[in-house]
Write a structure and sequence with these properties.
about 220 residues, 8 strands, alpha/beta, transferase, binds erythose-4-phosphate, single chain, about 55% helix, aldehyde-lyase activity
Length: about 220
């Protein structure tokens, strides 16, 4: 099970990796726009400095044709490092690019996945991660968990070395369901992950425990 954060906000990333068991950072051009860094590659290198090589960094291409995607992938790797996962939308051209990038040994995250057959194509093309868009699929009236569950079974049955990184989240319930239906990883905005701890019962439980402790040993007297 892997938690990844879907942001390029440096403060959010610093905070998230310090507090939570975060194993990577993803983004897309819209997420980059929310921060609008002056120099994209300087910013991505700064993210790498924060997260280190032990965490994964997934960077999305802009080009729509396979040739352009491959060219951009090389530039991304040159500018950041060879460990970056290249995020490629699973279009017809995208699948061609995924095959070519994998033939070169480049790490690929297949993204913009709305449909199971799209995911199967990315899987057969050799993607390392596949990102079904949970909230967006739900908005189209389909059940994203059907896709995650079938894809997870297919990966296990055929023995693919590929992880489902469920994406596009608006709430914790979608994240929980994704794991429960077979996603190996999720990538979510930091605000969604922090909702996990927003349950007021957590603080109330701690306050009640502390009240009992202080009633025995004196107000404000902790263990140390
Ligand atoms: C992953 O990085 C995806 O691009 C992202 O989660 C999509 O999220 P959205 O549907 O909120 O735009």
């Amino acid at each position: 099970m892997e938690f990844i954060v879907d942001t390029v906000n440096l403060d959010e990333i610093r905070d998230a990796v310090e507090y939570m068991p975060i194993v990577g950072v993803t983004s897309n051009p819209s997420i980059v726009k929310a921060t609008s860094p002056e120099n994209f590659f300087d910013h991505m290198r700064e993210i790498r400095n924060i997260i280190g090589k032990e965490r994964s960094l997934h960077v999305q291409v802009i080009a729509k044709d396979a040739e352009g995607i491959i060219k951009e992938a090389h530039r991304i790797l040159e500018e950041i490092d060879n460990e970056v996962y290249i995020k490629v939308p699973v279009s017809y051209e995208g699948v061609k690019a995924i095959k070519a990038l994998k033939a070169e040994g480049i790490k690929v995250t297949a993204t913009a996945v709305y449909d199971l057959m799209q995911a199967y194509m990315a899987l057969a093309a050799g993607a390392d991660y596949i990102a079904p868009y949970v909230n967006r699929i739900g908005n189209l009236g389909a059940d994203p968990m059907d896709l995650i569950s079938a894809l997870s079974d297919r990966i296990a049955v055929d023995g693919y070395d590929c992880k489902i990184v469920a994406a596009s989240f608006k709430g914790v319930q979608q994240v929980r369901d994704s794991f429960n239906y077979g996603a190996h990883s999720i990538t979510a905005p930091v605000a969604v992950l922090k909702q996990i701890f927003a349950n007021p019962n957590i603080e109330k439980a701690v306050d009640d425990f502390n009240k009992d402790w202080y009633s025995m040993y004196g107000e404000g007297k902790g263990i140390c």
